[in-house]
Amino acid sequence: MAKWGEGDPRWIVEERPDATNVNNWHWTEKNATPWSKDKLKSLLDGFVISEAGLECTITKIDKLDGEATANNRKGKLIFFYEWNIVLLWKGRFNDEEVTGKVTIPNLSEENDVNEVELTVTLDSSNPASEKMKLFMYNVGREKLRNQLGTYIRELKADFAKGLILPKKDEVNGTESVPQKNDKETVFASGFNKKKIDLETVTSTNDPTKKAAGVKLDLKTLKMTEKFQCRSNELFDALTREDMVTAFTRGHVKHELFKGGDFVYFGGNVSGKFEEIVPNKKIVQTWRYKEWPSGHYSSVTMELEEEEDHTILKVIQSMIPAAEFDRTAQNWKRYYWDSIRTAFGFGSFLY
């Protein structure tokens, strides 16, 4: 997830007074990180876990790393949060003090709170500490998950208030002007034609030409994915600069016209648009930064709208064989799964 404030200011429009984001059309994002840190501290620091005569207390939040954002797209609220938390705890059994840690490595929107991993460890091992460890494992983890669930519910409740703006003619039959919200950023629609100075690979973009003197073993990848949305919505997710920015979670270089360049994921992926058929087809030359200089693959994406979902068929040819598995995995993780998470397009049950 791109950290708050890292976005390029040339494509961010902040706090405009002229009825920005009418009908909640644009992607609106609010920084929820400071609020989240305060809320998690209030819920976890000093939290007492007691049951059946045993008691443990969270004595310190030893680590609280992460971030959170709240987003609105076309009236749909989407929350991103990712936290790595380490808690120190102590308890007493048979007049002997026991201390240890609870590690929560990945509290995020990708997992249900009941599935969040909590690891209990001890500072020292003896019969008393093993008894308290068992108590923390069986009772403490569940009560801590309840606290984490409270954080998630209050995050969504508090930040929903300022993200869904009034629609036109919604208040007394007249157009309403949304109030400014603290630290609110609106990602404007359309495509930014300004150049973003990112390092690109200076080599031929013809996928039929290999680097001179290098013989590569090449493979072709074929993928079929289903998304619970209309074809124009999926096409927008793949081509609108604001939406590409959202699912790649970082600023991008993106020129949507034939021969236009794109650079994603901090320069790790780059290429050119070769063919664009709205809502139907996208053809790109495409490469990883680590690939041999001058070598590009060819990517063809075709969209087919069905009655209740859209099918995306992707063929990527001329992938170096040594990179084939990594490329397939990264398409799924950083493109398809990220698009489903960012825009609520869902996973279709096969």
From TrEMBL:
Cellular component, GO annotation: cytosol
InterPro entries: Aha1 (IPR036338), AHSA1-like_N (IPR015310), ASHA1/2-like_C (IPR013538), START-like_dom_sf (IPR023393)
UniProt GO molecular function: ATPase activator activity; protein-folding chaperone binding
Residue ranges of domain Activator of Hsp90 ATPase AHSA1-like N-terminal in the record: 29-161
GO BP, sorted A to Z: protein folding
Highest taxon, organism lineage: Eukaryota
Protein family per UniProt: Belongs to the AHA1 family.
PANTHER family reported for this sequence: HEAT SHOCK PROTEIN 90 HSP90 CO-CHAPERONE AHA-1, LD43819P
Protein name as it appears in the record: Activator of Hsp90 ATPase AHSA1-like N-terminal domain-containing protein
Record organism: Anopheles culicifacies
